[in-house]
Amino acid sequence: MAAKRCLIIDSMHESLFSMLTEIGWEYDYEPSITRDEIRKRSTSYQGLIVRSKTIIDRDLLGENPSIKFIGRAGAGIDNLDETYLNEKGVHILHAAEGNRDAVGEYTIGALLSLMRNIPKSNMQVRNMQWDREGNRGEEVMGKTIGIIGYGNMGRSFARRLTGFQCNVLAYDKYKTNFSDQFAKEATMDQIRQEADILSLHIPLTEETRSMVDSNYLKLFSKRIILINTSRGEIVPFAAIVEGFSSDKIRGAVLDVLENEKLSTLTPAQAQYFKQLATRTDVIFAPHIAGWTFESHIKINVALTDKIKALSLT
Hints:
By secondary structure, the protein is of the alpha/beta class. It is built from twelve helices and twelve strands.
């Protein structure tokens, strides 16, 4: 029987290599490989393991790909042309189970930090300012939290809210009857009416790109805290700025940005970003919600388990 071989085209934690060997896969590790080199070499492999830097599509793999699976070391698959891969019978494996715990913990931590003014008060004390009253915060207890998308990430966040005695509502366009001990299934209208906090846990698709715009936000009855740990392109900078101006947003946690290559912001993006960057009621982070030492390994475990379970002919 011919050896099963995969090409790894992004930087990975070293634990992946022994895991692949244990399940009978040979691998070539080429994290610096170019797109042209992938195109030339892909016919020698049955698997391709990627992160997010490379678009996987017809242009890359051709009309008759030898690749049988794409292993996405992470959650989002917006760099994969799903239509093309499904057409060619290429399995799409992603490892959202690997960083869901990290995302759940981060979302809780960032929300608490914002509601208790921790980033702002930390900087004030470092600058010899002592302002207790100006940093009086809020409790999560009693708040209604609306979760959009109840998959691995949304459910992980809901699970960690259990001890806070808050009301957790979840909306998922593609699921029904999913209420559980962590969240109650709700309509989008219910969330618009009741939510104090809105947390996004949805993939980037053509449907969700720029979904949260000013028209979306104006439908909320309360001034909300907006949390985005999914994809930045879902919420344009302009919508967030407008949300603050129109009193629809009162705070934001932005782990992801509309354009994460800050040196390439368009003039309009740069203008809106600068406005947000001056606010103490906005927390930024460089897309680290799922980025922990533990998730680095958990992602590899989840991915190799799925590769092992594949039946390839």
